[in-house]
Design a protein that fits this description.
This protein has 238 residues and is an all-alpha fold. The protein is built from seven helices and no strands.
């Protein structure tokens, strides 16, 4: 006669079912940024107590296969511990990536802003001063073509400076705002959904402003070049 198969304990008595429920709540809290260290410690103590009762003290009746149920509970527990350990390393790497992004963006933005603003202000400023010298009479007997070229140069240089300042201002202010939000999201035990949403947040709130700001910045160079070109044509034609 074949050996009778001993059933697993019912769900309301099952060790594995209890462990699975506990891990479901632990993981839910952890993904929201709350580390349930006490609950995890209690669960490990629970598993160890039942191990002693089942395998050492033999306290449970043979009506159910408690050994198999405990082994399943232990397997569920170990698998979740491995998952948390590996996922935690991944989360830490993602947090470090965004922290480095904040630091590098701030450093690069300040450096680039200073260099570009300095160069363009010098160029536009020199062109404006030279044109004002012509228009204000500091240069004796300027030609009619020089007067027209000076007016074009001032107009396009001022427009270039306005575009440049507007572009940099837009990018700088929005970048500071976005960085503050990102740094706040990285504090403490980060909510995983918020951490993974940073990329989408930047795509919605930073990237469009950067595109517009860059268009204004590079456009300011084009406007300055166009003004210089028109001025040169006027002088040549005159």
């Amino acid at each position: 006669m074949a050996d009778e198969i001993i059933p697993l304990p019912p769900m309301n008595m099952s060790i594995a079912a209890h462990v699975e429920r506990e891990w479901g709540q632990i993981l839910a809290s952890w993904k929201k940024g709350w580390a349930s260290e006490t609950r995890l410690s209690d669960l490990e103590h629970y598993i160890e107590v039942y191990r002693e009762k089942i395998f050492e003290k033999r306290e449970f009746s043979p009506d159910y296969n408690w050994q198999a149920d405990w082994l399943r509970a232990k397997s569920i527990h170990d698998a979740n511990v491995d998952f948390v350990r590996n996922r935690r390393a991944h989360i830490d790497d993602v947090k470090k990536m965004w922290s480095d992004w904040c630091a590098n963006t701030e450093k690069g933005m300040l450096s680039l802003s200073i260099e570009v603003l300095k160069s363009m202000v010098l160029l536009n400023g020199a062109a404006i001063l030279a044109s004002l010298a012509v228009l204000s009479g500091q240069i004796s007997s300027p030609t009619h073509g020089a007067m027209i070229a000076a007016k074009f140069t001032i107009l396009f240089s001022v427009l270039s400076l306005i575009m440049l300042a507007t572009g940099h201002g837009m990018i700088f202010l929005r970048a500071v705002e976005v960085q503050t939000t990102v740094r706040g999201a990285l504090l403490g035990n980060t909510n995983h959904s918020k951490l993974y949403a940073i990329g989408r947040y930047l795509g919605r709130h930073l990237n469009p402003v950067i595109d517009i700001g860059n268009a204004l910045i590079f456009g300011s160079v084009g406007v300055f070049a166009l003004g210089s070109f028109i001025g040169a044509i006027v002088l040549i034609a005159a």
